[in-house]
């Protein structure tokens, strides 16, 4: 056996990645967008002490009703207006589901894991039924997708800077807005009064209550805001990415978003980096088939069954959760219902 074979293949693999990476960057951000928005939803929820594994269901319901709005209105008001109305509806549906989850978790003090699981199951059933009842029999398409912005070729061709600009600017408005949400929430959580109160009710709600912070109000607010972000993730799937709705089209993205949140240690920037990691894992399977490597490396990559590439993000989720859970410390009161003294 050639002792230099493995180092040579590793070197060829690194060169291959560097070669395809510039063209891959916009795809990575597009694939990471729903994951990042879902992860931000998780950060807002869990930083205030509410576990939300219903992100998958929130995204799916929002994706369906956002698409349904565009589907119903595009012939009346035009595709562009219908798409933006669909986005508004998707965000509203996400916020309403956040309100429902907040009511169950904060006011009713139901088991938060069960509440989220019920939301996921209900979303799968409701959207599947309504899709078969309303959309499929009509034979009509939806409103289409938001046209992406394209940067001038002079900027895109710049060395190093060009691919990075293309990554963030050769996108639709929802994908481009992700970095804004990440930076705003990072600043808000760690540099504002709202962020201090959020972290306080997630770490020690009793002490926060003693200091005059309304724990219930803070948790309600954050869960609803998080739901709105999950709704925006759903809108991205149907109104910016695919222009169609398929049953169960979220495909576990809500759970991967939670893994990105844990990987990012419950911070917006860390969660965004985790989402990019998962987006890269998904994009790798695409680029191997579109731009295959040459030589021995190409033979090896082509010999791997395609379903392994499709499963790569989910395998990465398992590996990260197995390696990170236990080392990352969640907020102390995460998932613990709070009751004022004398009202338990």
Please give a handful of descriptors for the protein shown.
344 residues, mainly alpha, ABC transporter involved in vitamin B12 uptake, BtuC, globular
Strand content: under 5%
Write the H/E string, N to C: HHHHHHHHHHHHHH
The number of strands is 0
User: Globular, elongated, flat, extended or rod-shaped: what is the shape?
Assistant: globular
Question: What is the tally of helical segments?
Answer: 14
Mean pLDDT over the residues:
92
Helix content: over 70%
CATH domain topology: ABC transporter involved in vitamin B12 uptake, BtuC
The chain-level structural class is mainly alpha
Termini separation comes to 70 Å
Written description of the protein model:
This protein has 344 residues and is mostly helical. It has a single domain (5-138, 156-324), classed as ABC transporter involved in vitamin B12 uptake, BtuC (Orthogonal Bundle). Helix content is 76%, strand content 0%.
List the helices and strands and how they pair.
Blueprint: H1 5-47, H2 55-77, H3 79-107, H4 112-138, H5 153-156, H6 161-169, H7 173-191, H8 193-203, H9 205-210, H10 215-241, H11 253-263, H12 268-290, H13 295-303, H14 306-324
Helix pairs in contact: 1-6, 1-7, 1-10, 1-11, 1-12, 2-3, 2-4, 2-10, 2-11, 3-4, 3-10, 7-8, 11-12, 11-14, 12-14
């Amino acid at each position: 056996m050639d002792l230099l074979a493995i180092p040579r293949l590793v070197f060829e693999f690194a060169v291959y990645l560097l070669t395809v990476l510039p063209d891959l960057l916009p795809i990575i951000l597009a694939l990471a967008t729903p994951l990042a928005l879902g992860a931000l939803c998780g950060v807002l929820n869990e930083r205030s002490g509410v576990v939300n594994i219903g992100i998958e269901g929130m995204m799916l319901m929002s994706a369906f009703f956002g698409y349904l709005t565009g589907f119903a209105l595009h012939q009346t008001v035009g595709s562009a207006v219908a798409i933006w109305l669909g986005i508004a509806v998707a965000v509203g549906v996400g916020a309403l589901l956040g309100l429902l989850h907040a009511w169950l978790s904060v006011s009713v003090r139901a088991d938060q894991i069960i509440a989220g699981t019920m939301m996921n199951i209900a979303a799968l059933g409701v959207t599947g039924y309504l899709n078969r009842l309303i959309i499929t029999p009509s034979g009509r398409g939806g409103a289409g997708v938001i046209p992406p912005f394209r940067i001038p070729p002079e900027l895109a061709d710049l060395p190093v800077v060009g691919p990075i600009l293309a990554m963030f600017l050769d996108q639709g408005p929802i994908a481009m807005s992700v970095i804004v949400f990440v930076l705003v929430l990072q600043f808000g959580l760690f540099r504002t009064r709202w962020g201090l109160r959020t972290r306080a009710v997630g770490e020690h709600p009793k002490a926060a209550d003693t200091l005059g912070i309304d724990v219930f109000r803070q948790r309600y607010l954050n869960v609803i805001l998080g739901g709105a972000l999950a709704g925006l993730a759903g809108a991205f799937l149907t109104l910016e990415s695919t222009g169609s709705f398929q049953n169960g089209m979220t495909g576990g993205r809500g759970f991967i978003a939670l893994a990105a949140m844990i990987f990012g240690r419950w911070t917006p920037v860390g969660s965004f980096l985790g989402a990019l990691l998962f987006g890269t894992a998904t994009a790798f399977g695409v680029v191997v088939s579109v731009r295959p490597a040459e030589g021995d490396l190409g033979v090896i990559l082509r010999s791997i069954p395609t379903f392994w590439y499709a499963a790569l993000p989910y395998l990465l989720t398992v590996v990260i959760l197995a390696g990170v859970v236990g080392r990352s410390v969640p907020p102390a009161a995460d998932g613990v219902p709070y009751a004022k003294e004398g009202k338990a």
